[in-house]
Specification:
Length: 465
């Protein structure tokens, strides 16, 4: 918003008014990118702490801590009078993100029935999309406030959903996995499982949870153990899935969609409305993912979404290279074509990498390293989000339309990774997903070698006794 830029980022506002500055470079400001990306460095640090709290004190505790930080950060945002207060707002929100992104997907995966786990977990991404959609709609209306203080409403309204999160978490039960892991109370876990599953026949699932909990108690340092060779498949998935998620370029859309649309010729109101349109497409795609993920499977959705995103990135890059120059507005027909292609892109992301980035790692990691695996997912997400948000505007200024070809090439690489190395996990109880590695053409070698080592160790121990 112009009123926001005038008050806190006057240099960026001057660049926008200067006809000699390239369209690609109007928003290139280290201070502006620091404002955007500081939240994710804070989230990166917070998630490492949150992993330990989630494991020791439960998923609900992390949710409530995250909600409290959200509320505090919103207060500083709405009351900001200088850049340091804005940065404090972002840092506090980042800490909230670190705790909630670490605990909520984990909670959903452990509470959901196996046959609906994908749909339930995808509800997390759907709610993210709805939140971003509400924020975009709010921005569209508050920018019309002529006094120029509409941005205060935008920054302070985060307290509303944060309050729902914090209060709501008080009334949630803990997951059966954590109940057994915390105090070994199988009776309470059985009652909760029967209520969640709607049947008294939960003996098999309860036995799996007890076995996983017993193994988990022998693992004192999950972050150290996840680096062991026997957990190599899970570690690679937990590391590369969030990395690839961020190099799709989705956060370029999430962060800078209004900036991007204004760059190619849309005015202030029109660019904010364009962001609403793209987010509506993403929300619709999230609903599609919830319907299809447990029938079609994870791999198929990822591969289809990848093809869609590849074509979109290359097409946008080609249009900008041919029709958008450093000075002068783009022809409106081509600007609207870019908007349509962006909608195709966010739809492809919305039914693939958006919901599955948190689902797949939570599924493949056994209980003893699950909190550590989720911590790695969130940490890598925040790290890559920071890198991309910190570098995108400068990259756009220097290589211009080539930015989109770079993202397209990276999506080609991640398509190859999914096709070759990611196993299908749909429909399996969460404590039985480890069996997929034994059938995979690549990972089964590691599993077989680890089993042989375990047999040899048992043989040596029995012979020595």
């Amino acid at each position: 918003m112009n009123s926001f830029l005038k008050r806190f980022f006057p240099e960026v506002y001057r660049q926008k008014q200067d006809s000699k500055v390239s369209h690609y470079c109007q928003f290139n400001s280290e201070l502006l990118t620091l404002f955007t990306s500081s939240m994710y460095i804070a989230g990166l640090v917070a998630t490492l702490v949150a992993s330990s709290i989630t494991r020791r004190f439960g998923r609900r505790a992390s949710m409530m801590i995250g909600g409290a930080f959200f509320i505090t950060g919103s207060v500083f945002g709405g009351a900001a009078v200088n850049v340091p207060m804005l940065l404090l707002n972002r840092i506090l929100l980042g800490i909230g993100l670190g705790f909630t992104n670490q605990s909520i997907p984990l909670y959903l995966s452990e509470m959901a029935p196996p046959q609906y786990r994908g749909a339930v977990n995808n509800g997390f991404e759907l709610c993210l999309s709805l939140g971003i959609l509400c924020a975009n709609i709010l921005n569209y209306f508050v920018v019309k406030i002529k006094a120029g203080w509409g941005w205060r409403i935008s920054l302070s309204m985060a307290a509303l959903p944060a309050a729902f999160l914090t209060m709501g978490a008080i009334f949630l039960p803990e997951t059966p996995s954590f109940i057994i892991q915390r105090d070994g109370n199988t009776d309470n876990a059985r009652v909760l499982l029967q209520k969640l599953r709607g049947t008294d026949s939960v003996h098999k699932e309860l036995d799996d949870l007890v076995s996983a909990s017993n193994l988990s108690r022998t693992t004192r340092y999950p972050f150290r153990n996840i680096f062991k060779r026997k957990y190599r498949p899970q570690f690679v998935i937990a590391l590369l899935i969030p990395f690839f998620n961020q190099v799709t370029g989705i956060n370029v859309i999430n962060f800078y969609a209004p900036v991007m649309f204004r760059t190619i010729g849309f005015k202030e109101n029109a660019s904010l409305l364009s962001s609403v349109v793209t987010r509506l497409c993403a929300t619709f795609a999230n609903i599609v993912a919830m319907i299809l993920v447990d029938s079609s499977g994870r791999r198929k959705l990822l591969l289809i979404g990848n093809i869609q995103m590849i074509l979109s990135q290359f097409t946008v890059g080609a249009i900008l290279a041919a029709k958008f120059k450093d000075h002068g507005d783009m022809d409106k027909d081509y600007a609207y074509l870019v908007l349509i292609i962006m909608c195709v892109f966010v739809a492809g992301y919305g039914w693939s990498w958006g919901p599955l980035t948190f689902l797949v790692p939570a599924e493949v990691c056994p209980l003893e390293i699950r909190s550590a695996g989720q911590g790695i997912v969130v940490a890598v997400t925040f790290l890559m989000t920071f890198v991309i948000s910190q570098t995108f505007l400068a990259t756009l200024c220097h290589i211009k339309s080539g930015t989109f070809f770079v993202f397209g090439a990276l999506i080609c690489l991640m398509t190859l990774f999914v096709y070759l190395f990611l196993p299908e996990t749909k429909g399996l109880p969460i404590e039985q997903v480890s069996h997929v590695w034994r059938r995979h053409w690549f990972w089964k070698k590691i599993v077989r070698e680890e089993q042989e080592k375990k047999k040899q160790a048992v043989t040596i121990a029995s012979s020595s006794s």
